[in-house]
Amino acid sequence: MNxxxxxxxxxxxxxxxxxxxxxxxxxxxxxxxADPRVVVLDADLAKSTLTGRFAEKFPGRFFDCGIAEQNxxxxxxxxxxxxxxxxxxxxxVFLAGxxxxxxxxxxxxxxxxxxxxxxxxxxxxxxxxATHQALEEIALMRVLPNMRVIVPCxxxxxxxxxxxxxxxxxxxxxxxxxxxxxxxxxxxxPFRFGQAETYRNGRDVAVFAxxxxxxxxxxxxxKLAQLGISARVINLHTVKPIDEKLTVKAAMExxxxxxxxxxxxxxxxxxxxxxxxxxxxxxxxEMVGVRDSFxxxxxxxxxxxxxxxxxxxxxxxxxxxxxxxxxR
Length: 328
Hints:
By secondary structure, this protein is of the alpha/beta class. The chain has helices at residues 3-7, 20-34, 46-49, 52-57, 69-81, 92-98, 100-108, 137-142, 155-167, 213-226, 244-254, 269-280, 300-306, 311-327, and strands at residues 17-18, 38-42, 62-64, 85-91, 115-119, 148-150, 172-175, 181-182, 197-200, 205-209, 231-235, 238-240, 257-264, 285-290. It folds into 2 domains: 3-14 and 189-327, Rossmann fold, CATH 3.40.50.920; 17-182, Thiamin diphosphate (ThDP)-binding fold, Pyr/PP domains (Rossmann fold, 3-Layer(aba) Sandwich). 42% of the residues lie in helices and 19% in strands. The chain has a 7-stranded mixed beta sheet with strand order 3-2-4-5-7-6-12, sandwiched between helices. The chain has a 5-stranded mixed beta sheet with strand order 9-11-10-13-14, sandwiched between helices. The protein has a two-stranded antiparallel ribbon with strand order 1-8. Helix 5 (69-81) runs parallel beside helix 7 (100-108). It is globular.
């Protein structure tokens, strides 16, 4: 994205809000129209995942598998072997938890063309609580050979990510949220699978984020500017394969990094960035994310505040990493 698109043209305080699953549902309808091979499977949650919209328009290509996630993945694998492009849907915690073995062995091992779409990602699910808040699935999905992982930052990017995933041959995991979140991209905003986008230029620290945290990182960058700190904000929507070239370039130029994720910090998005930097450009790194804890019921923004995932927490992490940078 061009720097001016964020820095000049977008008022972060007045952006509209929309759930990422809305963009996903729009993309499914477009794919259904364009390609008869696209089929959709759900686990009795079509109203929540919005796949019901696809079912209404293409009833012969929609399969409600009931609350049987493991079986659903096996069916998806068979459909892929038959030449279909199955999109599998339920909450991310059920896909990555209950059906991990089937995703691993029935899909990834054979490199089958199955798209796995996990809804209810992150703490911002809100009142549904710990059992439904997926805080571990980025780690569980990115560890699998042949799996790609995408975490869109808003509904527009979710639509683009879904369309891009359909063109890829092989397994893809897409993480979606439930609650309305700020829409910070437009139709013109680039989305290129595997290529990160710099949403704000800066020289003092590189702030890497995915999902909802991209918006919060941009808000934090504005607050940091008032403190005299120039923060570069990078949307790393493709967690796997990660854009190593841009990640290393930003770290080399800024000499400090902060990662931001609505997920456990262990083995998740921040770890993916740190793995790259440890090998190619060791710099001080601070991580903003959930720290070895389950979530709980509450309003989304209250939970983000309690678990220290707000823009203010990003500001504090940047201040810490700048201090470490100066001590080197």
